[in-house]
C-alpha cells in the first residue's frame, strides 16, 4: 500500500476484490439496487463513481470519497479499508437499517403527515417524494404537482415516437 497525498493506493487485485464486495453489498441492502442507476439516485453518489469503483476501473480514491462510498453502501470506512488490505475478506459487514456514520435519511424520504391514504409512498420516485414536502401548498396542490412531475419523469424515461409531416419518425421527450 502506498500513500500519495490524501489518496491511498492498493494493488489492482485489492480494488477488484472491493468491487465484487460492493456489488454484493449493494444488492444485499435492497434487491432493487441491482440497478446501479437506482442505487445512485437513492444514495446521491455519481453513477460513474459507482461504476468505476465496482469495476475497479479507477484506483486511488481520496479518503473523503471512500468515506462517502462507505456511507452509501452502509458500511464503515474501516470495512472498506479492511477489504482493500485483507485478501481473505469475503463480505462487507453492515446493517441495511443503519447507515455508516449514523447519517440520517433526508426528511423528504419520510412520508408527510398529511399524505392521502390513496397514495402509496414506497416506490415513488425521489422527485415526487420531494414534491410532497413543498411547504406552502395545499394537499391538493401538492398532489397535482406530484402527478405532473411523475408524468414528466415517465415521458422522459419512455419517449413517444411520432411521425412528422415528411413521414420521418422523430422522438419527442420532455426536456
From TrEMBL:
Record's InterPro entries? Cro/C1-type_HTH (IPR001387), Lambda_DNA-bd_dom_sf (IPR010982)
Q: Where is this region: Disordered?
A: 81-116
Domain of life, per UniProt, equals Bacteria
Q: Name one GO molecular function term.
A: DNA binding
Q: Which SUPFAM superfamilies does this chain map to?
A: lambda repressor-like DNA-binding domains
The residues covered by the HTH cro/C1-type domain are 35-80
Which PROSITE patterns does this chain map to?
HTH_CROC1
What protein does this entry describe?
HTH cro/C1-type domain-containing protein
Species annotation:
Thermomonospora umbrina
